Fold this sequence. Notes:
It is a single chain. The protein is mainly α and 220 residues long. The protein has a domain at 1-147. It is 69% helix and 0% strand. It contains eleven helices and no strands. Helix 1 (2-24) runs parallel beside helix 8, helix 3 runs antiparallel to helix 4 and helix 10 (174-189) packs across helix 11. It is globular and about 60 Å long.
Amino acid sequence: MKDSASVGLGLVPLGLAFGVLITHSGLAWWWATLFTTLIYAGSFEFLLIGLVTAVAPLATVALTAFLVNIRHVFYALSFPLHRVKGRPAKAYSTFALTDEAYALTTGERARSWPGRRILWLQLFMHLYWAGSATAGALLGSLIPDSVTGLDFALTALFTVLALDAIRDRRGDLPTPALALLSALAARLVFPDQLLPAAFALFTAGLLARHFATGRRPARA
């Protein structure tokens, strides 16, 4: 709980905003619990509200989910799933692999964490998200549309995670620089597919650097 508290508390206002959006979209409050418990995909869940209210075809929903969450393919390259023991535990850990969980479990201080600690961290973060979204949905009718700032919680949270990642890699300046160049190139060349293109360019850059210099990164 201590490991997940900093990020988990950042998820609370975002979950509240999601729950409020559920009720303001005309859906029953329990949709918030259903989405956050069974889908647990963050930004895709916000998009799913519009898809559900518009009665979008399942093929459209599936394609949208794939495009939004394709970045998780890259997370799997360095996520410490091998420390999690047992098939049910591995299955849940894979399901609960969010951006925030990845950021916390691949940092310097998480290198010694056993699988149980990783799994409990993911579970607590899941509870933060599902619980706050349910609370937001139940209280949605009491929160006016004029309330602003809740939607900034996600931006603030990812900014903090990015700063922590850079701080952990002080001695490896080329890697953050390569990430920034990949994002800028993707923005210019593939503006409609910025995130998957940036991840692909970043991975290609790391592989090229490794084969060209034989250098292994100091931190995974």
